[in-house]
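Input record (Table S2, row 217):
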Amino acid sequence: MSSNIIKYLDEVHICPHCEQKLSCCHAPAIHVGDGLGWGAEVLFICLNDSCSLFLNGWEKIEQQYGHHASYRYMELPESSESNVMMVGNADAYKASVVDPKELKKQNERHQKQKKAVEQLETCVTEKNLEPALYLILDEAADVIQRKKAVSLLTQINDLACIDPIRNHTFRDTSLEMAANQALQELLKNNLQKECPFCSNLVKMQAKKCMHCKEDLE
Ligand SMILES: [Zn+2]
Ligand SMILES: [Zn+2]
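Output record (zinc ion complex):
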């Protein structure tokens, strides 16, 4: 969803009542499914508390409907058509303002995941550990893609994956088990083992660890 919203960040909408820039806000989720919605993910709303429409709205609504509310000026994305929405207090929608930095960060993460998933297709032939390792360590990535990445580890055959995977805390225990199993296989294929004392890699047949000098038998 974030990649869809990001294109609206550069849109500039101006309130005709106060000449202030409208704020890009996440559209309220409650309206999306019930047919009452604006059909947009974001709304551009004038959140200026000194806006004449907002200031005069209290009295207007009080007289017309007899309840305590006011208007905010609003435009839909890619449109300059005037809309108003009713608000019950001055803070309404202020917490929904889209944070462009957070959105860009989310979007970058999303793009990186997407690229890594694409690269999974070629990472074995290219002996490219990076996309597989990226997905395995990314707790926000799709678990099916992460399991696929784990299943490719022995074919990529790069021992550089061992430390980062060992140091990672997996939330999904089945993924953790699969990763551990893949590492065991990878070590076996490379005639290596992990020293139980210092965790460094040593030859399978080693009787003494060359790193910590502990006896391994
Ligand atoms: Zn305004
Ligand atoms: Zn050792």
